[in-house]
Design goal:
Length: 219
């Protein structure tokens, strides 16, 4: 009985992933506003009714894709922080990784942005929203760990206050910068500003603020 149950669960997971793959493919190709449940069913080569068995609406599909985005971001952050030794350098590497993530996966970046725009209470346990929210906490956990490491090794100032709050502030700063880099490269160029210049200036400001001294401005 356990074998049969396991096979059934594997089949459900496979079918669910096929649906999310189809929705993500359309998202990447056409943008989220153009995605429909009918379109997802056609791309996945499944009936519309079966798609609704796994996802009650388009919003649930978006949350499933956002969960994937958060998993990818978490992996990129861990890889970035592992490449450097001191905490301040880890934070810089994480910031650069976030910008690279946004440029490489604009549909994932858009999904994360849409999640932040949702005005909701506590996510229902076991829901797609709860899964995305929990992965988001893990993403911030990597940042907080690097901030704490920097305070221990002396590269980051000790008077930052709550590191969870600091992580959200850094996210807001870097998210906004990434959004500008993705959507405003043309207008920036007209002003004689390149995206690499914008990035380098932002990194310098972050380092200066976190270190509290000009000694770490250039890395």
């Amino acid at each position: 009985m356990s074998y049969i149950a396991d096979r059934r669960q594997e089949e459900k997971d496979r079918r669910r992933n096929e649906i999310v793959d189809a929705a993500e493919g359309l998202y990447r190709e056409t943008g989220w506003e153009a995605v429909t449940m009918d379109g997802v069913a056609r791309k996945a080569r499944l009936s519309r009714a079966l798609v609704y068995v796994y996802f009650k609406d388009k919003g649930e599909l978006l949350l499933a894709i956002t969960g994937r985005a958060m998993e990818t971001l978490h992996s990129r952050f861990e890889e970035a922080s592992a490449r450097t030794r001191i905490g301040l350098d880890q934070i810089e590497a994480i910031g650069r990784a976030y910008m690279a993530f946004g440029m490489e996966f604009p549909h994932y970046f858009d999904a994360c942005s849409r999640l932040e725009q949702r005005a909701t209470g506590t996510p229902v346990e076991g829901s797609h929203e709860a899964a995305a929210f929990q992965m988001g906490l893990k993403v911030h956990g990597v940042v907080v760990a690097s901030l704490a490491a920097g305070q221990r090794d002396g590269s980051i100032r000790a008077d930052l206050g709550d590191l969870q709050v600091t992580s959200r502030v850094l996210w807001g700063f870097t998210h906004g910068l990434t959004q500008i880099a993705i959507t405003k490269a043309g207008p920036l160029a007209e002003s004689g500003i390149t995206v690499p210049q914008l990035t380098q200036q932002a990194i310098a400001m972050i380092r200066y603020t976190l270190a509290g001294t000009g000694r770490s401005l250039a890395g």
